[in-house]
Each structure stands twice: as C-alpha cells, then as structure tokens.
From TrEMBL:
<keyword id="KW-1133">Transmembrane helix</keyword>
<feature type="transmembrane region" description="Helical">
    <location>
        <begin position="400"/>
        <end position="422"/>
    </location>
</feature>
<dbReference type="GO" id="GO:0006811">
    <property type="term" value="P:monoatomic ion transport"/>
</dbReference>
<feature type="transmembrane region" description="Helical">
    <location>
        <begin position="371"/>
        <end position="394"/>
    </location>
</feature>
<protein>
    <recommendedName>
        <fullName>Multidrug-efflux transporter</fullName>
    </recommendedName>
</protein>
<feature type="transmembrane region" description="Helical">
    <location>
        <begin position="296"/>
        <end position="317"/>
    </location>
</feature>
<feature type="transmembrane region" description="Helical">
    <location>
        <begin position="264"/>
        <end position="284"/>
    </location>
</feature>
<dbReference type="GO" id="GO:0042910">
    <property type="term" value="F:xenobiotic transmembrane transporter activity"/>
</dbReference>
<keyword id="KW-0813">Transport</keyword>
<dbReference type="GO" id="GO:0005886">
    <property type="term" value="C:plasma membrane"/>
</dbReference>
<feature type="transmembrane region" description="Helical">
    <location>
        <begin position="337"/>
        <end position="359"/>
    </location>
</feature>
<keyword id="KW-1003">Cell membrane</keyword>
<keyword id="KW-0050">Antiport</keyword>
<dbReference type="Pfam" id="PF01554">
    <property type="entry name" value="MatE"/>
</dbReference>
<keyword id="KW-0472">Membrane</keyword>
<keyword id="KW-0812">Transmembrane</keyword>
<dbReference type="InterPro" id="IPR050222">
    <property type="entry name" value="MATE_MdtK"/>
</dbReference>
Length: 437
C-alpha cells in the first residue's frame, strides 16, 4: 500500500514539476485546481473508500461472498452521485474568484479543475475497486495496478503538456487529461485481476452483481460519517490553501512546492493508514481483538520511524529541496526564501501526521466513524476560523498563518491518540452493533 500510494504521489509530483518548467503561476494553479477537485469529490470518495473496512470485516468473518457485493454497492453509489457532482463542479469553480486570485491564475485553475471533474466517475470507480483489494489483503494487486497507471501517466502528461511525440500542446489541461486517461487504464488493470477464474470462484464474483440492501444500508451507515469527515477536512484545507494564495503568486508557489515535498511523507502514510484499516477490520470481523494491539504497535513503529527520518531531511536540506522547483523566472529567490522557512513547520508536523493516520486507520477499521467525523469537523472548523482571522482580519503575514496550520495538526494528533488509548472503541456491545446489517 505504501508503494501504491507513493506511485500516486509521484504522479502528482511530476505534474507539478512539469508545471514549474512553465512558470510559478502554473504551479500555484495546479495546486489550487487539484485540491479543489479533491474537495469536490471528497465526500463521495470518503463514503466509497469505506469499502476497505467493510470488505475486511466480511473477509475476517469468513463471509467471502459478501466481499465483492460491497464493490457492486459502491459502483451504484458512484453512478448515482454524478448529477450531484455536476452541480458541485459549477459551484466550486467560483471559489477561485471569491478568494481573490488573479484573473490569469483563475483561468488556469478552472481549466485544470474541469478536466479532472469530467473524469470524476472513473476516480470513484478506481477508489472502490482498490478499496476492495485492500480489504481482502490483495495489496500487491493494488500496487501493480497503480504503478502501471503512473507508468502511463508521466510520459503521457509530459507529451500533452508540452506538445511532443505528436501530441497537441495543451499546457495545464494536458496534465489533467493525462491523469484521467491513466485512471481509466488503471481500472482496466484492476478488472483483469477481478475477473480471473480463481478470484471469480472463491468470491462468487458473477453472483455479486446485484443490489444488496443489507450491505448497502451498512455501507451508508458507516461510510457516510467517513465521507463527511474527509469532506470537511479537505474543504477546510482547500479554503486555507486558497486564503493563503491570496497573499500573492510567490506565496502560493511556495506553498505548492512545500506541499509537494509534504507528499513524500503524507502519501506513504496514507498507504499505512489503509493497511491498518484493513488489518483492524479483519481482526474485528474475526473477533480477535488481541491482534489489533499488534497491528497498532507495528503501525506506529513504521510510521513514526519513517516520518522522523524525513523530518531531518526537510530541516537540513530545505533550501536545496526548494531549488528543485526553480522556475525560469528571475524572481525565484523570494519563493525559495519563504518556502525554506515553511519547510521547518513541515518537519514539525510530519510526526503528527503519522499519529493521526495510524490512529484514524485503527478507529475506522473498528467502525468508530461517527467519533472521527465529529472530532475532525470540530478541529478543522476551528482552524479555518483562525485562518480567516489571521489572514483577512488581522492581516498577519504568511508565516503566522503557516504555524497556525502546524499547531492545528499537532492538536488533532493529541486528540486522536487520546481516543485510541481509551477503551470506548473496543467495547463488545459497540462492535456488535457496528457489525450488524
């Protein structure tokens, strides 16, 4: 799962690296448009991605035939949400203007955003089937499929951005189109594994293509809170990002570069989060709570060890890491200077990210989704209010805004850790209710 998620990070990383070869405005636009796309589909993605825990629980309890039925219900959800996503796209595209971005940046952001939204159905389908294979512990399938998609995406996006190898020169639209085409290709690779004879027979795949109201109700009961949690977290982060970009092009470019390096830490940790969710769900389904402690311990050792090493790299090589994204323009110095200061904050919160993702993966695998939703929504809302006051009311500088964001992540890590160390999520009665259809 770490390799799989890292492949996705590499895809986004290279897209923004290609944008830096044009100018700083394209870097900022790719970040703003990309994050707004994620926010637009975050609720539906959060619901559908709960398939990992749901499938793992059925798998752990030996109900193999119900595992692929979860995919069918997820695909139904993905299809039904398309009209809503069309409305969301038309409304969300106005955010760039409301946040005070420059007209030339808005034009680029909208191009990138609308191409990605046109492929949103494929993104949700890919999320659903990847969550299924994670849930049945076939993570090698996820790795092979996602890496294959990246191998297609990187040269295709390069060709479409710069107009080489006979492709049209589409600029920032080419980066988004390359992502959509690679996503469709990845779904095809997943389908090959899904319909193999051995898999069809063991999981009764062909008999699973039906509406199962019991599974669908349980999917929505536990998945909707996950969807709200992901949406609110992504929405507040996106609004913070757009507010921060209102400082100017240099500040927006600096943030885009810092978050590009942040992906080296965050995205592999998302892989660990998915793995923990799957393993916890499996042992909860099997009624073996003693093994959950081993999963939690292993998750923290791996995540904190990895993040600690990266924190040292971010501190000692921050200037050199900023220079990787040097633009052809002459004024990259101010961008690098601000970004190198922000890298210190990044090094501070990467360990908090490790705690948040391992703890939330554990709680999600055990079905504690309502608590995660309420807690995440509250802390992220407080962070956003603080950012509005700092940026728009008090008119403090970008460093003050950045450290407020860092403090929010540290606070969230402490709250999640406190819940994990308690016994509420382990109570047998709560687990029994959670497993009911």
């Amino acid at each position: 799962m770490v390799v799989s998620q890292s492949a996705f990070a590499l895809m986004v990383f290279t897209d923004r690296l290609f944008m830096s070869k044009i100018d700083a405005l394209h870097i900022a636009a790719a970040l703003g448009g990309g994050v707004t796309f994620f926010v637009s589909i975050a609720f539906f993605m959060g619901v559908i991605a709960y398939a990992t825990a749901l499938v793992a629980q059925y798998y752990g309890s030996g109900q193999y035939a119900k595992c692929p039925r979860v995919i069918t219900q997820g695909l139904i959800i993905a299809l039904l949400c398309q009209p809503l996503l069309l409305i969301v796209a038309l409304l969300a595209a106005e955010l760039f203007r409301l946040m005070g971005h420059l007209p030339e940046q808005i034009a680029l952001e909208r191009q990138y955003y609308f191409v990605l939204m046109a492929g949103s159905f494929f993104t949700l389908v890919k999320t659903c089937i990847a969550s299924y294979f994670s849930g049945i512990a076939r993570t090698r399938v996820v790795m092979i499929s996602d890496v294959s998609g990246v191998i297609i995406n990187i040269p295709l996006s390069y060709a479409l951005i710069f107009g080489v190898w006979g492709m049209p020169e589409l600029g920032i639209r080419g980066a988004a189109l390359g992502t959509v085409v690679a996503t469709i290709f990845t779904i095809g690779v997943y389908a090959v594994f899904y319909f193999t004879r051995v898999h069809r027979l063991r999981f009764a795949v062909l008999e699973s293509l039906v509406l199962d109201k019991g599974i669908l109700r349980r999917y929505l009961r536990l998945g909707l809170p996950s969807g709200f949690e992901l949406f609110v977290g992504a929405a507040t982060f996106n609004l913070f990002l757009l507010l921060f970009q209102s400082y100017g092009i240099n500040e927006g470019a600096a943030m885009a570069i810092v978050f590009n390096w942040d992906m080296l830490n965050y995205v592999p940790l998302v892989g660990m989060n998915i793995a923990v969710t799957s393993m916890i769900g499996r042992y909860v389904g099997a009624g073996d709570m003693a093994r959950t402690n081993e999963v939690i311990s292993a998750g923290f050792v791996l995540a904190l060890g990895y993040s600690f090493i990266l924190a040292l790299v971010f501190i000692f090589f921050r200037w050199e890491m900023m220079q990787v994204f040097a633009t052809p323009e002459d004024d990259f110095g101010p961008i690098a200077a601000l970004g190198s200061q922000m890298m210190i904050g990044l090094a501070t919160y990467v360990l908090a990210d490790a705690v948040i993702l391992i703890a939330s993966g554990t709680l999600r695998g055990a079905g504690d989704t309502h608590w995660l939703m309420n807690t995440s929504m509250l802390i992220h809302a407080l962070m956003l209010i603080g950012q509005v006051v700092i940026i728009k009311v008090l008119h403090y500088g970008p460093i003050a805004s950045w450290w407020t964001f860092v403090i929010m992540l540290l606070s969230l890590a402490l709250v999640y850790l406190s819940r994990l160390l308690g016994n509420t999520w382990r109570q047998p009665k709560r687990l029994k209710r959670m497993l009911q259809e």
